C-alpha cells in the first residue's frame, strides 16, 4: 500500500473525480460542517467518523459514493470544525445531533455508515430511530468492547496531540490508526493539526474522551440484546490489523445482528476506508446498493 500512498499525496487527488462541496448547516442550533457529493435524486447516505476525527477521513470515498448516493460526511458534534458545546459527549448526544442533521437536510430516512465511534453512534441511532435508517454499515465499530489498554492508548495519544499539536504528535496519533503508517500523508496531518489547534479544542477533547472512562463506556455500550434488536440489513466490516480489537469482535457483532453480513479486509488498521479505498469502496457500495 506504499505505492497507493504515493498516488494520493493530496486530498485534491482523491477528490479530483467528484463534484463536491464543503459547507455548514444548522442542526438543532449546532453549526455543523459537512462534505457533500452526489445529487438529491439519489438515495441519501450519511458517513460518520471516529473519536477525535472529522469528515475528511472519507476523502478517498466521496467520489465513488457520490456516483450512487446523495453523500454527506459530517463533522460530528464536538469534532472537526463543528460546534463544541460544553457538555459530555455520550452516545445519545451524537445520536440527537445526527437526527437534527437529517431533519435539516429533509431526510426522513437515510443509509447510515459509521467508522469506530461513528459506527457506535449509527448502531444506537438505528435502535432509537429505526424508521429513519435504510441500510446500516458498521466499520471497525465501537460499542462492544471494554479493553483498558486500548482506552488508555486513545486517551494518551489523543491528549498528547491536542495539548501539543506539533507535526510529530499529530502524525503519531494518525499512524496508530493504520497498518501501514506511510499511508498517513501531509494533507491528513495538516488538516488534523489545524483542527487540534482551534481555541477550545483542549476543553472539547475531555468531553469527547468520557467514553474512554470504564463506567461511562459501560453505560453507553450496546448489550447483546441490543445488538440482536437491530433489524436493518447491516454490514459489519472489520480488518486484519485493527489496533482497537481483533476480528473476533466484528464476527461476534455480525452473529448477533439478525440481518448482518461480515466482511474482513486484509492489510488494514482502523481506517480501511482511507488505507485501502479501492477494496472498501467496492464492498461498501455493493452493500449499500443491495448487490451484496
Architecture overview:
The chain is of the alpha/beta class and 292 residues long. It has one domain: Alpha/Beta hydrolase fold, catalytic domain (Rossmann fold), CATH 3.40.50.1820. 43% of the residues lie in helices and 17% in strands. The chain has an 8-stranded mixed beta sheet with strand order 1-2-4-3-5-6-7-8, sandwiched between helices. It is globular, with a radius of gyration of 17 Å.
Keywords:
about 290 residues, alpha/beta, about 15% strand, 8 strands, single chain, disordered N terminus, about 45% helix, 8-stranded mixed β-sheet, Rossmann fold
CATH topology grouping: Rossmann fold
Separation of the first and last Cα atoms: 25 Å
The value of Rg in angstroms is 17 Å
Major β-sheet profile: 8 strands, mixed
- The topology string of helices and strands comes to HHEEEHEHEHEHHHHHHEHEHH
Shape: globular
Average pLDDT:
95
Which SSEs are present, and which pair or pack?
Elements: H1 2-6, H2 11-15, E1 20-27, E2 30-37, E3 44-48, H3 62-66, E4 70-74, H4 91-105, E5 110-115, H5 117-128, E6 133-139, H6 148-163, H7 167-175, H8 186-196, H9 201-208, H10 214-220, H11 224-229, E7 234-239, H12 247-256, E8 260-265, H13 272-275, H14 277-288
Parallel strand pairs: 3-4, 3-5, 5-6, 6-7, 7-8
Antiparallel strand pairs: 1-2, 2-4
Q: Summed up, what is this model?
A:
With 292 residues, this protein is an alpha/beta fold.
